[in-house]
Amino acid sequence: MGEAVDLGKVQETLLIPLYGRARDARRKRSVLHDTRAAEIVDGLDYDFSTFRLPNTHGSVWRAAIFDGFVRDFLADHPDGFVADLGCGLSTRFDRLDNGRLTWLDMDLADTIELRRKFVSDTDRYTMRVGSILDTDWYEAIDMSKPVLLLSEAVLLYFPSEQVTPVLQSISTAFGGALFAFDTAGTLMVQGQDRSHRDVPAQFYWACDDPADLQRYGLTVKESYSFTEPPADLARGWPLLDRLGNKVVGRFPMSKTYRFNLFECTPAR
Ligand SMILES: C[S@@+](CC[C@H](N)C(=O)[O-])C[C@H]1O[C@@H](n2cnc3c(N)ncnc32)[C@H](O)[C@@H]1O
């Protein structure tokens, strides 16, 4: 019998990318080769049979793009500090650990409790209970090192009134740090088909142009979509993914879904 899954509505969404990575790992040709995700899926007592392929596989491409942000950061700063805010059951540390970095994975209490059934802290890897909407976690970020903050598929679940003060606060607290997160345009937020969703949570925050976030102290360094993934990254994907990615990327809705790397540049 696997571990029981008893998560809140937004927390349960972590199962979509987890299952996507596990399915991808079991393919003959895989994007992420995330066999650890497959082991975790096997260790859960949960019925994944209703999950739909486009949602789960889109999250594989998204994870690969975020991995690219981390790889590039580590190429410049191999001893850097990475914090994944809303990590879910992400296995990114296992995929990218270079033996030197320091990593913090943070999520809400029920998620971290489940995560601890599969993952343990080490001297360079720790987990912490916390909300990205609060500030108590700021003390855990080691600003004596180069810092990369990640928050993948988290902020979208909150309304703009909650998200924008958080962005302003983070950019002010972590001037000079990099911050990667995804944004979804109005078309995508309004076009969600709730009756066919894998899990009940839905997106609320719409951002049509990541450059608009400059007003909260975030300067766009890189921004991609499914239509325009980083060329060097997509070149290494299996042919089916390169084709599928182009097809999915043609839908007007998904064109507005962007994967962004910002620099925190608070106004002086
Ligand atoms: C769609 S999942 C993404 C998980 C992970 N980032 C990934 O891509 O595999 C959304 C995650 O946001 C987390 N979450 C929800 N509210 C949060 C909050 N206020 N602070 C931090 N994490 C939160 C959930 O527990 C869940 O793990």
List its traits.
about 270 residues; alpha/beta; Rossmann fold; two-stranded parallel sheet; 10 helices; about 35% helix; globular; binds S-adenosylmethionine
Question: Can you walk through the features of this model?
Answer:
The protein is α/β, with parallel strands linked by helices and 268 residues long. It has a single domain (64-264), classed as Vaccinia Virus protein VP39 (Rossmann fold). The chain has helices at residues 15-26, 35-42, 53-76, 92-96, 109-115, 160-173, 186-190, 231-234, 239-250, 252-255; strands at residues 3-4, 44-45, 81-85, 102-107, 125-129, 147-151, 178-183, 218-225, 258-264. The strands form two sheets. Strands 5-4-3-6-7-9-8 form a seven-stranded mixed beta sheet. Strands 1-2 form a two-stranded parallel ribbon. It is globular, with a radius of gyration of 17 Å. The mean pLDDT is 92. Bound molecules: S-adenosylmethionine. Residues 10-11, 13-14, 17, 85-88, 90, 107-108, 111, 131-133, 152-154 line the site of S-adenosylmethionine.
